[in-house]
Amino acid sequence: MKIACICNLNHAQFILARYLRDAGHDVTLFLIEELTAFAPEKDTIGDIKDIAIRQLPWKHQELNNISKQEIRDHLSGFDRYCCSEFGPAFLFKAGITADLFIPIGTDLAEYPFWKPSKRWPENWEIDRMQFVLFQKAGIRHSRALFMNKNGDMILESALNKIQFGGIRFPVSIPYLYMPDYLKAELNAELTEIVRKLRSQFSFIAVAHSRCEFLNPESIHYKGTDILLRGFANWIQKNDVSACLILAEYGTDVTAAKELINDLGIERNICWIPPTPRIQLFPLLKSCDVFIGNLSGPYWSYNTAMEAIAAGLPVIQHGNENALEAYPYLAAKSEQQLNLQLQKLWDSPETGISMGKEAQNWFSQRAIDLPVNELVKFFASGEVNRKPWWVISEETILWHWLNIGVRFLNHFVNFYRYRVARMYA
User: How many CB atoms lie within 10 A of CB 368?
Assistant: First the structure.
């Protein structure tokens, strides 16, 4: 079966592509506006075999200027289509149903709900609105979606607003392509970092999520401030020999460094540069605990999955109602983080045991289960494409709206011009 995987944020589609390739499918990975960090070669060991990779020249905010036929010229000829990030909008404009949508976060919670800054949109905002409407429609009409029920109310609310009508598999796609990750070894730079830290400290915590904390209302808020204050309180109150590894990644890195200086814990912090996670994975195995998201009821996000795959115990906010989650230590305040770190310091065996249990959960629930579901889904011969008029309904509505608003904009701009001339 010929399968197209479109967009690669968080390496989601490249992971999917490799497992589908191993199942005997002919897979092509299409890249659109990919960040350098998510280039396929950053998440693999050695050469990429038996997966075609195509770089598409498009930008999502210019979707209005890309014709349906141009998209079809690049993407036609496949039996199944999988997508993330901008993929739903491009497929929808081309009149192609997405067989499988894999939400990453912003593609489901933000893109479909963007609104113009003013009541009457500028022309460039009208261009962007086509992407917004087509993203929403592309997700709504997807045949299936892989998204577990992890208590993320932002994503659940977005899915309900979009009125997704396909099949929902309550599992995530595999978070890592384990055949490559099991072969990963520390490079020389990280080997030296681990050696120095182990010679200076008895306990190493790692928190390699993005530094995001200045805007608590943002969906990207990670609680980095809670992490740093809680860690500082713990080491100063208990006089322990401990270090925290942070990734120099995120919009608030500078603010985090300033907070670290204010707290007086510079000596206990080790910054590592942005590093492909497949190179970072062996480093995780050298640590004693992973401290994850302290800001919301999440437990199935990438950095946490990487940590439990490496056998680390996890401290995070978590969700007490998530009955199928792996074992972790709950903390959503500085005081709770202090207590959980002390628990692991007093009883290293507790952390080792919890890490092994979580690692077994990862193998069964985050790899074997979703891989089996994917194989069964793509083994099905049923295509179940939606009728063309369902796909075209929003397209036709958009074109009439586009023409009407642009026509009125000419009058608005002419009026603005006349007013400006009067006061010139």
Answer: 12
Fold category of 2-173+387-414 in CATH: Rossmann fold (3.40.50)
Q: Given this model, what pLDDT does residue 290 score?
A: 97
Closest CA to 6 of 134, 100, 105, 70: 100
Distance separating alpha carbons of residues 43 and 281, to the nearest angstrom: 11
Four-way CATH pick for 185-361: 3.40.50.2000, 3.30.70.1060, 3.40.440.10, 2.30.180.10: 3.40.50.2000
- What are the Cα distances from residue 415, in Å, to 302, 411, 420? 51, 6, 9
Over 80: is that where the pLDDT of 409 sits? Answer: no
H or E element at residue 168 = strand 167-169
pLDDT at 218 over 80: yes
**pTM score:** 0.86
The upper half-sphere exposure of residue 108, i.e. CA atoms within 13 Å in the direction of its Cβ, equals 26
Q: CB-based contacts of 143: which residues, under 8 Å, 6+ apart?
A: 97, 98, 99, 100, 166, 167, 384
Distance spanning both ends of the chain, measured CA to CA: 65
Looking only at Cα atoms, what is the longest distance across the chain?
Answer: 79
